[in-house]
Amino acid sequence: MEIKDARYLISNPNYKQCPPPDRPEYAFIGRSNVGKSSLLNMLTGKKSLAKISSNPGKTQLINHFEIISEKNFKWYMVDLPGYGYAKISQSSRRRWEQMIEEYIRKRENLLCLFVLIDSRHEPQKIDLTFIDQLGKWQIPFVPVFTKSDKNKPGATQRNVNAFIRSMLVTWEEPPPFFVTSALTSEGREGILDYIGDLNRSYKKD
Ligand SMILES: Nc1nc2c(ncn2[C@@H]2O[C@H](COP(=O)(O)OP(=O)(O)O)[C@@H](O)[C@H]2O)c(=O)[nH]1
Ligand SMILES: [Mg+2]
Prior knowledge:
It is a single chain. By secondary structure, the protein is an alpha/beta fold. The protein is 34% helix and 23% strand. A 7-stranded mixed beta sheet has the order 1-3-4-2-5-6-7, with helices on both faces. The chain is globular. It binds guanosine-5'-diphosphate (GDP) and magnesium ion. Magnesium ion (MG) binds next to helix 1.
C-alpha cells in the first residue's frame, strides 16, 4: 500500500471527542520514548508529522492523523501517549489508564493496535503485562519491535525471540510481528501492507 498524503487532524483528551468512527483506524502505543512518533513519521514519509518529543510523558492526548492512500481512501492513524514514564504523578497515571482503556475498548473503528517494543531490551514486564491486558479485553494488536538499527547483529533477533517466547506463557500461538527502524525504514512495507489488507476487508463489510 502507498500513502498519498497525511496530515495532523486533532488531539483529544477523551475517546468520545474523537473524529466520527467512520473509517479504519490504527493506533500506536508503547513505553514513552519507544519511538511511536518516529514510526508514524517513517510510515507516512513525513519527517515532522508527529512531534518527536524530547520530553517524554508530556503528551497526554489522543492524537489523530488523517491518511489518504490509493483511490483517495481515507483512514486514521493515532499516536497515543506512552506508558511507563517514571516521573508522573499517581493521578496522571490513573488518568492515562482510564483514557487508554476507554479508547482501546470503546473505539469501534479501531482495527488494530500496534504495540511498540524497544528491540534493544530483553522482555520487559511492563510490555508483557500490557499485552496480557489486551488479550483479556480481546483487542486485536501486533507487536512492533523498534530501533533495530541500534542493535549489534543478532541482538534484534535474540530479543524478539525472547519476547515472543515470553508471550507464549499466556498465549497459545505466536502473534504476527514487525521489526522496524525509523532510521533505515526497515519494516515500512510490511506494516503498510498489513494495514492495506485490513482496509480492504473493512471496505468489503
Ligand atoms: N536510531 C533510532 N532512533 C530512534 C528510532 N525511533 C526513535 N528514535 C529516537 O528515540 C527517541 C524517542 O522517539 P519518539 O518517536 O519521540 O518516541 P515516542 O515517545 O514513543 O513518541 C528520539 O530521540 C528518536 O529520534 C529508530 O528507529 N532508530
Ligand atoms: Mg511521541
